[in-house]
Design brief:
This protein is an alpha+beta fold. It has 2 helices and 5 strands. A 5-stranded mixed beta sheet has the order 1-5-4-3-2. The chain is globular.
Length: 78
Amino acid sequence: MATKEDLVMTKHAQDEANDEGISRIEIAEAISRGPRIPEGNHFITVYRHFTVVYERLPDTRFKIITVHLGRPKNWKGK
């Protein structure tokens, strides 16, 4: 299970999470519990009311690329 310490946030992801009121704990929970849809070399997960785009790093951490409220356009996931 991912923890907030496992997250490496890009500046963009930090800004978006702060603007949207999404905590690092919620992001870690989304990675652990949400559906993981591959998209190129990234993964997309939609969990509860927000979307996380991330990639897995070689050392078991997760690089968070972006976070935003809602689902991505043309979402075909569960």
